[in-house]
Specification:
Strand order of the largest sheet: 1-2-3-4-6-5
Number of domains: 1
CATH class: Alpha Beta
Largest sheet: 6 strands, mixed
Structural class: alpha+beta
């Protein structure tokens, strides 16, 4: 799926995030001609993860009521990333989210991240995302 189309889908349907500005690639799930979910994969947001071998699922968005679509998209992202030469694929979920789809797709928890602002005195920013604790996942 073209990244711009995936971004529009996320902006219309994601429950707590806007679409990322860009990405490396996007995948979609459909029922017939209707797109029911998308995932956008990009370079890792955290600088310390940008080792040249790691990519990140920066957004996943599925319409309500479509069982297994999230797991299917996470699996497709990992297969596509490996085919493109990436050695590692990560993502984050809010600590309040169960991660069932990630477990079903074979991902594992590799850590926890404290929610904090990206704004610092040397680079003030306006926070546009939830500042909640997160769980860090890696594809296997």
């Amino acid at each position: 799926m073209p990244i711009q189309d995936a971004r529009k889908f996320v902006d219309r349907h994601h429950r707590h995030h806007r679409a990322p500005l860009s990405g490396l690639f996007a995948v979609a799930a459909a029922e017939g001609d209707e797109v029911i979910g998308v995932a956008i994969v990009g370079r890792p947001v955290a600088r310390h993860e940008q080792d040249g071998w790691t990519a990140e699922v920066t957004r996943l968005c599925v319409l309500e009521g479509h069982r297994n679509a999230c797991s299917m998209l996470y699996g497709a992202c990992w297969r596509a990333a490996r085919a493109l030469g990436w050695r590692r694929l990560i993502t984050y979920t809010l600590k309040s989210e169960p991660g069932t789809s990630l477990r079903a797709a074979g991902w594992r928890v590799i850590g926890e991240v404290k929610g904090r602002s990206w704004s610092v005195p040397s680079r003030p920013r306006i926070d546009k995302h939830p500042l909640f604790d997160k769980i860090k996942w890696s594809a296997l």
